[in-house]
Amino acid sequence: MTQTTTDRRPSPSGSPRRRWAILAGVGVAVLAVLALVYTVLSPAPGGSGQASADTSFTASTLTGQEVTVPGGKPSVLFFFSATCGSCAAGAKALADAQQSNPEANYVAVDIDPTETADDVREFLTANQAEGLAYATDTNGSISRAYEVTRLSTAVVLDSEGAEVSREVDPTLDQILAALTAAGSR
To answer: Inter-axis angle of helices 87-100 and 117-126, to 10 degrees?
Structure first.
């Protein structure tokens, strides 16, 4: 009797069990990444879209003057990245609002941890926004506190630090109307 032998070498992509194991591992990794992204971008438990009144931080102008938010008067926070092309118009609108209504705090918050203070200065200068105070949110704490998930977001706070308005790609008119609602002239 002749016996036939079969070649049992695995195919280049491996055995079916190995392929399933690899696919399962990739699936678990994808789920872990999605869970992490969801956790980072989700509002804090019980979040209402508003930061608590005790959330405060200090920003500096290009000349070194310090601005505390909320600081006892209405504040406008503009979340941006120096490499965000669409953020330029919002930064300019914020600077124009500051010229029209100097009775509030105006702070540009850079949310890109890789950008330097020089990057922020160049961005503000290029957008005629040199008078704005700025803060760098290198660890995401300010963005999380104000539940900001999109670039070019402006958050307007009243003098107590309660959120009055939130706009993406804000215009000068939107900022000024929100400041009026926040109690600023």
So the answer is: 70
Q: Which two tokens stand for residue 70?
A: 């909320």
pLDDT of residue 27: 54
Q: pTM for the full model?
A: 0.71
Determine the pLDDT at residue 71. 87
Domains and CATH numbers, the chain: 57-181 (3.40.30.10)
Question: What is the C-alpha radius of gyration for the chain, rounded to an integer number of angstroms?
Answer: 25
The distance between the two most distant Cα atoms of the chain, rounded to a whole number of Å, is: 103
72-100 pLDDT tens trace:
999 999 999 999 999 999 999 999 999 99
Which ranges of the chain have pLDDT less than 50?
A: 30-53
3-class secondary structure, 106: strand
Phi and psi for 27 in degrees, rounded to 5?
-60, -45
Judged by DSSP in three states, 39 sits in helix
The residues, ordered by sequence, that sit 6+ positions from 156 with a Cβ below 8 Å of its Cβ are: 74, 75, 76, 77, 163, 164, 165, 166, 175, 178, 179, 181, 182
Would you tell me the crossing angle of helices 172-181 and 87-100 to the nearest 10 degrees? 50
Tokens coding 84: 């965000």
